[in-house]
Amino acid sequence: MTTPDKTVTSENIFKKIISHAKEYGFVFPSSEIYDGLQAVYDYGQYGVELKNNLKTLWWKSMTQLNDNVVGIDAAIFMNPLTWKASGHVDGFNDPMIDNKDSKKRYRADNLIEDKADEYEQAGDVKKAKDLRAKMNQLLGANDLKGVYNLIVEENIKCPLSGTANWTDVRQFNLMFSTKVGSVAEEADTIYLRPETAQGIFVNFLNVQKTGRMKIPFGIAQIGKAFRNEIVAKQFIFRMREFEQMEMQFFIRPGEEMKWYEQWKETRFRWHQAIGLPAEKLKYHKHEKLAHYANAAVDIEFEFPFGFKEIEGIHSRTDFDLTEHQKLSKKKMQYFDNDLNENGKPYGNYVPYVVETSVGADRLFLATLCNAYTEETVGEGDQQKERIYLKLHPALAPIKAAIFPLVRKDGLAEKAQMIFNLLKYDFNVIYEDRDAIGKRYTRQDLIGTPFCIAVDYETMENDTVTIRYRDTMAQERVKIDELSQKIGNEVSFKRIFDKLS
User: Fold this and answer.
1) Does 265 appear as a known binding residue?
2) What does it catalyze (predicted)?
């Protein structure tokens, strides 16, 4: 028997997930009627609900479950000196290379990473590790000629042309710029923010003083960021416009490793609590650190295209606040009057920072990939393929769908009454078109955990049939028990309990 190629199977699954996302209202190519725009996507009616649920859950997990974390919403436009202080103006670059035959541009490090992934899939883990180590060494030394030579030595070819006819490697700044001012000639250049973290850092003292916050404390934010990615791939995994969920945790110098380890473990458990299996999650420790960090690790999820980052935890030292202090000439210090081990106040210092940064779009994609389920149901001649989204009920876009068995004899009016009863507490829908079996199937495809059928027995005793998405099991329930029953299953508390 021939063993199916795992890579081909995974690629097929991913194509199905992308098709499913469009067909059932989760993600659309942006401005598709004009042939779209590469690496830009719109969230459809069910996609926006799922994404909002993920964001709300993250926000509550940070600001509601931690009494020392608060939130802000900083502007996308910032004084351009912000990006000078952060290092983005001078150093926010990716190594780019063009293929002369296909005219396509690639990130050189991505090409090498893909080659390392090939070695891993072929079972040569050592070769993959050595290749990554050599790449990191060259990038760390900004040896672009060496990176080019490594691509040639590895015989890495363009996926489109199949040739290795490459240009030299050069650096490309990823920030989008625009102009602010009423007259073009006098307008100032500003940038669309490439990350949300700096909005937190420049507001550090505003939040600390107005909130009377004591270190350690955190500031959380959800917001859009923009990067001029030349090669965006893997659907919404890498986009030019994306959303980040970040928390910067301010601490005493010298305590960063303790908090780094604590947040690293806390965030890993959070991803499991929302339904991502432990076997599909792993840590990836950074060997090559960013200029601001003294420790960094990624939490990676196993997508159909391999293990990739969904969240980063970084010990950012005091780099950001110190650089803003230097350039702005404003003190970014905290006076800590708690006593140290010698019985003296800690005094003034620039706090250190531990960052947790989740890509909202990547988390959405991980959740969607994990939920996409194909299974065979029935026996013998009655066997058929079933597809559904096995989403955690708390995350599902629609919590329940209400169906009258038929539209006559008062059943439709009764179903509407139940819909009106539930709609103030849950996102529910009413549907009465097509056979009820087709209605069940439609709800399975968007991940609705409960379907409520109103039939003739309902008219006699005020009970309905509730069908469970995952098992397709059905049970009879009183109408006045529906709210509590659904509420227990879709509550965020079921997730929070796993974090205790």
Assistant:
1) no
2) tRNA(Gly) + glycine + ATP = glycyl-tRNA(Gly) + AMP + diphosphate
Enter the pTM of the model: 0.87
- Over residues 405-432, the pLDDT tens digits come to 998 999 999 999 999 999 999 999 999 9
> Two tokens at 428?
């529910």
Say whether 239 counts as a known binding-site residue.
yes
The 10s digit of each residue's pLDDT in 59-71 is: 999 999 999 999 9
Distance, in Å, from the CA atom of 189 to the CA atom of 80, rounded to the nearest integer, reads 8
Any binding-site annotation on 366? no
Is 309 labelled a binding residue? yes
**What is the tens place of the pLDDT at every residue in 272-312?**
999 999 999 999 998 888 888 899 999 999 999 999 999 99
Distances (CA, A) of 9 to 18, 361, 390: 14, 24, 20
Q: Tokens at residue 159, please?
A: 């996926």
Tokens of 119: 């070695």
Q: Is 385 annotated as a binding residue?
A: no
Q: What is the pLDDT of residue 460?
A: 93
- Judge whether 316 is annotated as a binding position: no
Annotated ligand binding at 407? The verdict is: no
Domains of the chain in start order, with CATH, are 6-92+174-359 (3.30.930.10), 391-499 (3.40.50.800)
